[in-house]
Amino acid sequence: MVTLLNHRGLIYAISACAALAGLIFGYDTGIISGAVLFIEKDFSLSSFQIEMVVSAVLLGALIGSGCGGRLADRFGRRKVLLFTAVTFVIGSLSSAIAPNTDALIVSRIILGLAIGVGSFTAPLYLAEIAPRDIRGMLVSLNQLAITVGIVFSYLVSYYFSAHGRWPWMLGVGVVPASILFLGAMFLPESPRWMVLRGLDQKAHATLQHLRAGEKIDKEFSEIQKTVKMEKGTHRLLFEKWVRPILFISLGLSFFQQVTGINTIIYYAPTILEIAGFQQARGAILATLGIGIINVLFTVISLPLIDRWGRRPLLLIGLAGMFSSLAVMGIAFYYPGFSALRWVTVGSMIVYIASFATSLGPIMWLMISEIFPLSIRGVGSSLAISASWGFNMLVSLTFLTLMQFMGPSRIFWLYAILCILGWLFVYFIVPETKDCSLEKIEENLRLGHPSRELGIPLS
Q1: Which helix (H) or strand (E) is 279 found in, with range?
Q2: DSSP 458
Q3: 134-160 pLDDT, tens per residue?
């Protein structure tokens, strides 16, 4: 066991570095929730303008994730991670010095380009370099990094909230982006991508380096065999045998977003102020506690993903999300309820804990697992573009719907969507634990039902 851990020290280090793309994703996701409380006052924003400032990054992410798949397939995963870091630095600096609302929105679109590209490239890269038996844990390091980035953003928000220094809140994002750039310079390229590009000798040497002390002949031959079967065209996405995974990936993207996660992440301080927290600083502090819970339960989920499997965690998590949203809706239905603040905080904690062990990490993981190799970049980017689109839809409409429907009904709406998500997972989503990426593709080509695509290796 000790020898195995020593041999895998390199893969853990590489994975941690690549997952920094998730950290910058999480930082910008979280920092706007605190910064917007002060931006609103400085720029005298309406509710719609607030939604525009928050959602501008999502428009950029939608564009970035849609275009980035082709970039990753053409130039390689490592170079795209470097591009992500540079673009995030530019976006963070321009956001910090934005003189007006229009400039801030443009700067956040640039940030979104970086986040959109990085949000699929990091888990894709991690899935392609990870050993099969710990693939779930390593890919989910990206989600852990997202949660750490969110907590980091809450700490930064709280520190600068005493004087309302929102430009500093946005500008600090340069720090994790710079670290990612330096680390990505030393990352190896994905062996699977190199085989796809005909660089077999380099791919073999890289895979041997990544699997130090382990035999790679079987794994490498499986990769070569899979590549020979590929047509290498994006049209493959629309062939009949690929449709099941397209449906699965789009379904997971849809339910990850429309079940309300980003109303909690982006608007948590706003919700807590409505629930009775009187000062922005106090609401941000309460949000920090929720962010810490997000990190803790993501850590708890990492070993469980490969031990229990993807499906059980999804089903348990969606049930917890439904329960917490239903309770929060009931609490807001009685606005004079004296304990509304604490019921809201408690419900948010249960919701975040449930999400962090289910849809949070597992959506990214499964999207990186189920697509055929030759279109893994394009397929992943399509699914994640859809995720950003759904994210933008929710973020652009939350405050407006809250005013129109009231908080209780909107939380009940998200709870109903959790039920639909549970049914989708139960009847459609496969278990991919202990199954190689090549075996998943083989099962897909053989026409196995969607729930049976992850039949383990014999």
Answers
A1: none
A2: -
A3: 888 888 888 888 889 988 988 898 888
